[in-house]
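User: Some background: our group keeps a shared notebook of sequences we're curious about, and every so often someone picks one and asks for a predicted structure to add to the entry. Today it's my turn. The entry only has the sequence so far, pasted here. Could you supply the structure so I can complete it?
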Amino acid sequence: MLDIALRGRAAAHMDIDNAAHHIVRVFGQALASTKPTIAGYRVYRQSSRLDNVRVRILPAVRMELLAHAMRDARELARPRMVTG
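Assistant: Of course. Here's the predicted structure to add to the notebook entry:
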């Protein structure tokens, strides 16, 4: 999973999803020798005095922990059946 921040005026001339697709493609090419699996991305604009792109790689284990936490939250949020 990639976390993509378009900082300042970076990629201001394009839609953020198109910018993300370009960045994911370039990332895949740059890391081709390791054959990475990019499960997805999150892209957003970020206020900054710098015009650049910041990409963070979120390891699969963090995504698994997030999925587990979301499952737990759904269990807590489900209404409980009251029997009398």
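Suggested note for the entry: Residues 2-77 form one domain. The two ends are 47 Å apart (CA to CA).
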